[in-house]
Recover the amino acids of this structure.
């Protein structure tokens, strides 16, 4: 065993002037052996990065320019897949629209509901821990579990939701069977899981300095004013983070439509990744599927960059000069 | 003058009381909305097929049919699928903790060429949509003959494929003073000994949070097991659940709901006992578990 907390060595230790010790076996200087150890310890990640990320990305880029059914050798097509995808493929554009609509509605609503819940919980509330756990519960569960529960709840004839509506005298709704309604049902379901954002906002709310509120109260600001003029601006960095994260996650939605509707009815819930899955693993069109993957990649990238660019206008970072005048 | 201010105070108190009442009303209503699907699932899992399709629906099934759970475990291979999932979760969580903590140590406490550039690369991979690597990775594992084995689902974890955990552990390692390393080095410890005997033991809370978050993620992982496993007996529970949906013969909802309860139970139980750490983890890293 080594002695960890030996007092003298703690006192003598300074990090910068490193001892000019040499390792007699390998004739490495201290810095060299440190560098070598660094590489060795990072090696699993470097190996994983090369073989599971960088390599596949290059291969995927090549495949996206081929036609390949896994059984005969890939045939090089240049950019034909992308051209077909973007100009000819109506189903692709349908899936693009479905995914975008879902993201545009579900992400902001989840943020708003999460923020409202966090604000309600960030007060002297009894059973705070219990409410927090209950609201967070959906976030720890598998999307498959949730989709299965909701498939049963959304049922037209025997579903719980229509049962409840019947008590109110409302005609049964075909939640998952009507192309005009199905996306709304998906958004409704996503709002049910807003607790993940709630938890992140709750942490952020607790770090807003109370002096700000006290000062505002002296100036006679009411609760709403305080919320929109102090709370929201102070936690914009966290809102920004959940916005980017929400966009990335919602554009890659797969298991929910896969379980809930399998993309139906009439492809009204055909999310892009589900469309990719069909091409790759049902029709074995690996080249075309790779092209879809790259379109998803660029779509996520473009949206993230746009949000990032916009952030200068609305995200407040404490310590930055912005908003304080020169 | 006094009566006026007294009346104002009374009004103020009443307004506060009403506000509190409304807040509790919303919170309780929300909690009911969140919990009701679980209650409904549990209730359905205890019904007979006739009761499942009864109108109006019964919330508390009478008579209850707990044998649905036995049927799920005996007539269907759900016990086997749960064990498969446990195996996958345990093997890949160990791999993730080891490979990610090693890399995190190298990125936070050692100086080596290209370290900071590679760390930027690592951060970028966290944002990468998995779809762009999905197909070539599938082909790689297929060529290796690993379809219907657990290698494609567990092996990448041993190579820090989920870089987020490198990031999480690095952030934690950065908070430990470098003096400790130097002291141990003076006493003749190697870098690896510093990692294994000082930094890891000091990082148990962070390792715990990382293990919980990753195990949870692995338990519910769906797409990878879906494409790599297609023998009935080797499925993981997340994918096996889907087999209860049967378009041709009609879904056995009561069995599917019983299976769903069994699948959710370990996660909910673990969440119940560890929520303080999990919630801390989410708040610190700002990422959904």
């Amino acid at each position: 065993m080594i002695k960890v907390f030996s007092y003298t060595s703690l006192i003598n230790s300074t990090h910068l002037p490193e001892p000019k010790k040499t390792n007699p076996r390998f004739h490495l200087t201290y810095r060299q052996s440190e560098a070598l150890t660094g590489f060795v310890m990072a090696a699993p990640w470097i190996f994983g990065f090369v073989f599971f990320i960088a390599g596949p990305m290059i291969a995927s880029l090549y495949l996206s320019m081929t036609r390949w059914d896994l059984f005969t050798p890939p045939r090089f097509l240049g950019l034909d897949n992308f051209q077909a995808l973007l100009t000819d493929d109506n189903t692709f554009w349908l899936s693009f629209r479905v995914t975008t609509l879902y993201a545009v509605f579900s992400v902001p609503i989840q943020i708003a509901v999460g923020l409202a819940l966090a604000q309600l919980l960030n007060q002297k509330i009894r059973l705070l821990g219990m409410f927090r756990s209950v609201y967070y519960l959906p976030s720890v569960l598998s999307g498959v579990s949730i989709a299965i529960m909701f498939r049963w709840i959304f049922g037209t004839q025997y579903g719980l939701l229509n049962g409840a509506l019947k008590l109110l005298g409302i005609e049964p709704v075909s939640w998952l069977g009507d192309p005009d309604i199905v996306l709304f049902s998906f958004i409704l379901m996503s709002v049910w899981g807003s607790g993940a954002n709630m938890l992140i906002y709750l942490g952020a709310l607790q770090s807003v300095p109370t002096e700000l509120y006290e000062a505002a109260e002296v100036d006679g600001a009411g609760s709403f004013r305080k919320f929109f003029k102090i709370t929201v601006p102070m936690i914009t960095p966290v809102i920004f983070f959940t916005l980017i994260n929400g966009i990335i996650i919602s554009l890659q939605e797969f298991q929910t439509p896969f379980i809930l509707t399998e993309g139906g009815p009439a492809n009204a819930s055909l999310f892009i990744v589900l469309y990719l899955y069909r091409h790759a693993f049902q029709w074995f069109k690996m080249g075309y599927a790779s092209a879809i993957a790259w379109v998803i990649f660029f779509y996520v990238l473009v949206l993230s960059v746009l949000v990032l660019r916009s952030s200068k206008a609305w995200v407040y970072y404490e310590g930055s000069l912005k908003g304080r005048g020169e | 003058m006094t009566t006026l201010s007294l009346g104002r105070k009374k009004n103020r108190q009443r307004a506060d009381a009403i506000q509190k009442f409304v807040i509790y009303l919303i919170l309780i209503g929300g909690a009911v909305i969140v919990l009701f699907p679980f209650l409904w699932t549990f209730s359905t899992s205890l019904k007979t097929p006739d009761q499942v399709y009864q109108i109006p629906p019964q919330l508390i099934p009478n008579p209850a049919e707990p044998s649905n759970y036995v049927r799920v475990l005996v007539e269907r291979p759900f016990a086997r699928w749960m064990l498969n999932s446990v195996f996958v979760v345990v093997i890949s969580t160990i791999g993730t903790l080891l490979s990610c903590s090693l890399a995190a140590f190298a990125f936070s406490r050692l100086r080596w060429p290209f370290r900071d550039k590679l760390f930027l690369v690592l951060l970028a991979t966290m944002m990468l949509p998995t779809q762009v690597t999905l197909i070539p990775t599938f082909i790689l594992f297929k060529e290796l003959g690993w379809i219907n084995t657990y290698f494609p689902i567990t092996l990448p974890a041993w190579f820090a494929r989920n870089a987020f955990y490198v990031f999480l552990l690095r952030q934690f390692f950065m908070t430990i003073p470098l003096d400790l390393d130097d002291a141990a080095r003076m006493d003749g410890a190697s870098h690896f000994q510093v990692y294994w005997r000082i930094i890891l033991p000091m990082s148990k809370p962070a390792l715990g949070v990382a293990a919980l978050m990753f195990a949870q993620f692995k338990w519910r992982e769906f797409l990878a097991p879906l494409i790599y496993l297609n023998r009935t007996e080797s499925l993981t529970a997340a994918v096996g659940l889907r087999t209860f949906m049967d378009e041709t013969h009609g879904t056995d909802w009561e069995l599917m709901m019983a299976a769903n309860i069994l699948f959710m139970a370990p996660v909910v139980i673990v969440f119940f006992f560890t929520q303080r750490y999990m919630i801390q983890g989410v708040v610190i890293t700002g990422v959904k578990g």
The radius of gyration of chain A is 27 Å. Residues 1-17, 320-326 of chain A have pLDDT under 50 and may be disordered. The CA atoms of residues 79 and 315 of chain A lie 39 Å apart.
